[in-house]
Design goal:
homodimer; about 270 residues; alpha/beta; globular; TIM Barrel; 9 strands
Chain lengths: ~270, ~270
């Protein structure tokens, strides 16, 4: 998503040119290009798919809407398996229209995980609940903290359900370091994503994530927390940023790699 | 602030017409009208000032900036005393420019409270730390949760330092009800403010607070939490909303009173 202006072949080629061996993919461009075709493309380019984003949106009350969401999530699991990644990132969903019941919405997520977890396991895929920043609690994700995500995940085996640690969403939370330790000791850090925090936030607060090094976060410190918790997996940089999307994607990817080296690598 | 388009005399007159006996004031219009003059105006109108907003902004590192902030906060305490309110609401401040040290910023707040608390007590004023929504953590307030606010407040006597419970800032937090109980049992709920949560958030995320009943919150439930914690003080409605500010202030105040009766009173 950081360079969504690039087509998948352009992305694969640019990763090759920059010696980037891992890439996280989103469902929409993969579906548009074709799931099998994408799998072939990344294999041929020697790329490993780190995660597929995103399943989720489990909070509907209406039974038909719930059944539809679960069917779509099974497809997302299948897509992840085809792409060769073992991790499907989940954005759990906001409050249904007119509802004010956060607790009920969180319980419906647990119900969905109970159905989806065994199916994902059968395809060799782990689910990674991503707590989203509390500013998205009403309309995108009622899971707002790592503690809440772990409270949900720990109802299920770790090889079925874990969490995504994304610095953009949790950096403000003074309990996040101890929750990262909790996640690590349970083997539940299934994905680790970086973005920096910059202000002012744009209207709708979706596409204002900061380029690495531009904002309020000490990303090396956060890398230290997940490493101290035993995490040795890939590190994704996931930037939703209108400014970056308006630029040449190859240049943005090169800049992001430079920033990563300057601000994240010890 | 809900009807900042009204002058202070218009505000006092409209409160009288609507049989509203309590009002929370902000420093800027009070200073513009004159502190003594405002005190006379509200006394003559039979109004009680619930709180004065706001002191705070304690996170500067530079000694001169810190001294200036403390001096301004002493003035705010004096203004509160002159207005006859016992509560000064504090917005603690964000990260200083270029800093990434949330922990250090929070410690500097504690240092400032240690200096300001005894002065406030000497004037009969209590300080009320307001945790602001985590979307303000970088640029306005590094105190993002009731738990953090109480961790700070509890270093000092409750008659010097407590918290402001504002639904807009804490509604997403599943630990907030237990933290309200913690605050209540320590006699530290010094102010209670209502606003609803509506999306999409506007650019800068400052002036998009929802009118009572328009959004995702069950405000009666939140009133229940503070009452169960022993709170019997006034309830403020504090809306920063460009749409409401563009309308006739008398009409907005009447509407807000109606909404309060419909959505908050049992």
């Amino acid at each position: 998503m950081t360079v969504r202006q690039l087509s998948l072949p352009e992305l694969a080629e640019t990763c090759g040119a920059l010696s980037i061996g891992n890439v996280g993919l989103w469902r929409e461009p993969v579906q548009a290009y074709g799931v099998e075709a994408t799998a072939k493309l990344v294999r041929a380019a020697g790329l490993t798919v780190t995660t597929l984003c995103r399943g989720g949106f489990f909070t509907a009350i209406d039974p038909a809407a719930r059944a539809k969401a679960l069917a779509d999530n099974r497809r997302a699991v299948d897509e992840a398996a085809t792409l060769g990644t073992d991790t499907l990132v989940l954005v759990s969903g906001g409050l249904p229209a007119g509802s004010r019941d956060l607790r009920g919405a969180r319980e419906r997520i647990a119900d969905a995980l109970g159905e989806l977890g065994p199916y994902a396991e059968s395809r060799g895929v782990r689910l990674a609940i991503e707590p989203l920043h509390p500013m998205y609690a009403a309309d995108r994700c009622v899971v707002s903290t790592l503690a809440q995500a772990l409270d949900l995940a720990e109802r299920f085996p770790a090889h079925q359900v874990g969490v995504t640690v994304d610095t953009y969403h949790i950096w403000w939370d003074d309990t996040a370091p101890e929750q990262i330790a909790r996640a690590g000791s349970g083997g539940r850090i299934h994905a680790f994503q970086l973005a920096d925090w910059v202000t002012p936030l744009p209207e709708g607060v979706l596409n204002g994530r900061g380029q690495i090094g531009d904002g309020a976060l000490d990303l090396r410190e956060w890398k230290g927390y997940v490493e101290a918790a035993g995490y040795t997996g890939p590190i994704e940089v996931e930037l939703f940023n209108d400014g970056l999307w308006a630029r040449d994607g190859r240049e943005v990817l090169a800049e992001t790699a430079e920033r990563f080296i300057a601000h994240v690598i010890p």
